[in-house]
Structure formats: C-alpha cells, structure tokens
Amino acid sequence: MQKPNLTKAKKRTNEQSMIIDCFNREIEKIGQNKTYFIKTYGCQMNEHDTEKMQAILENLGFSEAKIMEEANLILLNTCSIRENANNKVFGMVGRLKKIKEANPNVILGLCGCMAQEEVVVEKILNTYPWLDLVFGTHNFSDLPKLLKTQMLNKEMLVEVYSKEGEIYEGLPVKRKYQHKAWVNIMYGCDKFCTYCIVPYTRGKQRSRLKKDILNEVNDLKNKGVLEITLLGQNVNAYGKDLKDDYAFIDLLTDIAKTNIPRIRFMTSHPWDFDENMIDVFKKYSNLTPHIHLPIQSGSDRILKLMGRNYTKEAYINLYQKLKTIPNMHISTDIIVGFPGESDLDFQETLAVVEKCQFDYAFTFIFSKRTGTPAAKMRDDVLFKTKQERLQTLNRAIEKYCLKSNQKFLNQIIPVLIDDVSEKDKQVLTGYSNTMKRVNLKGDKKLIGQIVPVKITEVKTWSLFGEVVERN
Ligand code: SF4
Predict the structure, then answer these.
(1) What pLDDT, on the 0 to 100 scale, is given for residue 471?
(2) Cα of 292 to ligand 1 centre, how many Å?
(3) Which residues, 6+ apart, have CB-to-CB distance to 392 below 8 Å?
(4) Fewest CB within a 10 Å sphere: which of 121, 164, 174, 228?
C-alpha cells in the first residue's frame, strides 16, 4: 500500500522532469467483454485525464457503459479544489456501496486529485471499505497494471505517489469531440498560492517539449479539429522549467502559425503574464479574444496573504492593456471570505469589479484545504458574512455579464456548434470565439462546424440566435 504524503508532495528539486515514453505499450486484453464507467469531477485537466483513461481502458478491451449501475468497472476521477467538491464525491462513494452489494464483482475505483490527499485516503480506509482501487494523478497511466493486480488479489489496492512527477508522452486519448480538443502543454504548479491544494496534488511545474506539443496540434489539425485549448495550471509559466529560452509566447506564436482555426488557453496567472503577448494576439486572428485571468481578490492585503505576488494596481494595469486587443473578453475567478477578510477588503474587491466590468467570473467562498498555509490562518469571518459577500459580489458580476452579452444583440458572430443542448433536444449549443455560450435552433448536421449566427436574444449567462444562411 502506498499512501499519499503531503510533505513529500511539497518538495521541489531542480532536476529536469523525466519524459516517459508510452507509445506502443504492450496491452493484455484484461477488459474483454467488460464495461467501464468514469464519472469526472472538476476542471478541464481532469476531463482530459478521463479521455486518456477511457482510451487506455478501451485498449484493454473494455467498452463504455451508458449507465453507471451496469458497468463492471466504475472510476470516480475526483477534484479537491474545494471542500464541497470532496463532499460530492464522498456522497457518490456512499451510493456505490449499494452497487457493490448488488454486484460484488464490480470494481470500484477513486482516482484524481482527492486520492492525493492524506486525509481522504485515511477516510477511505476507515469508512469506505467497499472501494477496490485508489490511485492518484501521477500513476493513472499504470491503470492496466493496477487493474490486473486488483483483479488477481481482490483486495483494496491503494497506490498513490507523492512526487514531483514526470511527463507521459504517447498515452492514447478518446476525445469527446471530433471538432475540438484539449492539449496539455504543462503539468503541475510551483506557485503555492496559500489557499490552493493543486501544487500538492499535481506535482511540480513541468512543461512538455515544443516538438511534442506541435506534433499533437498538427495531428489534430490534420484530423479536422477546429479548436484547441492549451491546458496548464498556469500556462504563462510554460517553459520556465526547461533549459532553453522557449517561453509561452513562442509556443503560442508557433501554434498560431499552424493556422488551426481557433486557439484558446487556460489558465493564466497575472504574475507570469508577458505583455508582449498583446502584439501576438493582434497579429494572429486564430488566437481567440478571450483570456481567463483570475484576480482572486481586489485587496492588496489579501492578495499578499494569498501569496499571489501582484497588486490590485498591477492587475488593473495588465487588464487595461489586454483590453486594447480588439474584441478581447476577460473572465476571472474571485474568492470571498479568505481568512481575515475585512469588510474594507471586500469593498476593494467590489471596486475592482466595478472598474474592470468582467465579461464573466467564477466566484467562490474560501474553502479550507488541509495541508495548505491558509488552512492554518486565523479565520474570524462568520460564514453568514461570507455568504452575504458572495451574494453581493454575484449581483455585480451578473450585471456586467449581462452588459457584456448585450453588445452582441443583433450581431452576426461565428459559433462553433458543439452538441445538442442537454436541457432541450431541439436546441443546439456552442461557443463564440469570445467564449460566450450560444444556443440556437438548427439542423444537427451543423454540429462540429463554425457557422454565422445572428444573436436574437440575450440572457445573463448565454445568448440565443439563429443561423444565417451562407451564400
Ligand atoms: S497558480 Fe493556480 S494552481 Fe497554482 S497554486 Fe496558484 S491557484 Fe493553485
């Protein structure tokens, strides 16, 4: 049994990350005539890890079950960014007990970020003995070996490594869409913002080599993919761990030159943002005019406690420069109720929202993550006060989100149609290049295409429109 260890997970050395070649690995068909179901929680990084695990399982002979209860293997790919994310997963683990009772042969696994937390693994061992397999973010590529061991021994297998981490090249991927794709450009994070568990769960910042990323992008382009999203916990730090001067701005330029129609990236930390990127954006129209730039707080005192390494003024300065890029839309993340946040601190956050008028924002109440420095900070803000602040903040965010959407009324904009809407099967749904969700009535044949759409109705969180006939 290998349990996680947060002290080891925090360690950083100067050693270059190892690249592990997973091309052409030998496969034993241990999943023949069996089915799997993966439930994914959290961010795009997790979604993309799931796409890789799906492909690994299908190479082993498993096929995907449509319904969780019918699968022979159920995996929960978890997120630990906030406590309520953990609680949701534990609720699901509780539900899995019934499935195990009905079918003792089912294999139940928990993986992803939560598995990297010491407290989570202890809780699993003490409270949820019906789980069969626990593995972390560093070893999902070993899924064939882990499954085989569990199938032979039929005992709970816990295999979680706490280390800086490697880079795996050549893992198969089962992409959700044919027309858009995620591309990891780096893994892990070395910023250690005081509230954040990610540097412990995902290891050190490690960048993929330029050649491997460009090969993947060119391959996607040749397969007809129209949109890629470059993924990293902090994409602007890309290359800082490599022994050359090739930085994110260079990578972005090279990817833009491939002429793939739409390029997105996330997430950006203002700390590493190279302002020369503004010129790159102005030069290449396939860089979509949207940047997610988390501010987290508008109070310099709180930003310092968070370890964010920028001031409110520096953020606003960068924000205003980015806004000189034509049609640029900027979204953000904001945490309220950080330990010790005073009313004055919160008012400063509101003032920044009023000044920047973000196109949209994800807002959260501070969530204490065991093992992080912020978890030990004195927190005398009442939860009720935090909830009131969140409501006040959300009202401001909604006002500016609606205002941002209203600009599009009666405009014709290009929309990449993703799918049929989950809420209404008569409606198609997709995104503008500015990352606005657009719903429309239309033929399913449009899925996977970029089409001109006239916006006829505007809501706070989405736009509604109709396809304009192309001549
Ligand atoms: S930069 Fe992002 S991922 Fe890294 S520690 Fe800060 S909040 Fe977490």
Answers:
(1) 62
(2) 13
(3) 346, 350
(4) 174
Domain residue spans of the chain? 6-159, 167-406, 412-467
Q: Which of 81, 116, 198, 315 to mutate to test the pocket of ligand 1 (most atoms within 8 A of CB)?
A: 198
Find the 471 Cα to ligand 1 centroid distance in Å: 47
Tens digits of residue pLDDT in 161-216: 999 999 999 999 999 999 999 999 999 999 999 999 999 999 999 999 999 999 99
Euclidean distance between the first and the last CA atom of the chain, given in angstroms as a whole number = 64
Are 229 and 264 in contact, with CB atoms under 8 Å apart? yes
> Mean pLDDT score of the chain, rounded to an integer?
96
Q: Are strands 186-187 and 262-266 parallel, antiparallel or unpaired?
A: unpaired
Q: Whose CA is nearest to atom 8 of ligand 1?
A: 196
User: 0.85 cut: is pTM over it?
Assistant: yes
The yes or no reply on domain 167-406 and CATH 2.60.40.10 is: no
Residue in the structure block whose two tokens are 């929960």: 76
Nearest alpha-carbon partner for 303 in 294, 312, 314: 312
| Statement: residue 411 has pLDDT above 80 | yes
Hey, which of 10, 12, 189, 366 would you mutate to test ligand 1's pocket, going by the most ligand atoms within 8 Å of its Cβ? Answer: 189
Tell me the pLDDT band of 27, cut-offs 50, 70 and 90.
confident
Which pLDDT belongs to residue 246?
A: 96
Tokens of 191: 């910023």
Residue 435, SS3 per DSSP: coil
6-159 maps to which CATH number? 3.40.50.2300
- What is the enclosing helix (H) or strand (E) of 453? strand 450-458
Mean pLDDT of 382-408: 98
* Alpha-helical segments (H) within 16-82: 44-59
Q: How confident is the model at residue 25 (pLDDT cuts 50, 70, 90)?
A: confident
Q: What is the 5 CA–ligand 1 centroid distance (Å)?
A: 19
In eight-state DSSP terms, residue 276 is T
| CA-wise closest residue to 460 among 384, 401, 379, 374 | 401
Query: 126 burial class (0-12, 13-18, 19+ CB within 10 angstroms)?
Result: exposed
Which of 233, 295, 305, 309 for a ligand 1 pocket mutation test, highest count of atoms within 8 Å of Cβ?
233
Cα–Cα distance, 208 to 187 (Å, whole number): 8
Mean pLDDT of 241-250: 93
**CATH architecture for the domain at 412-467:** Beta Barrel (2.40)
Query: Is the pLDDT confidence value at 111 over 70?
Result: yes
- Adjacent-strand bridge partners of 464: 439, 457
Residue of minimum CA distance from atom 1 in ligand 1: 191
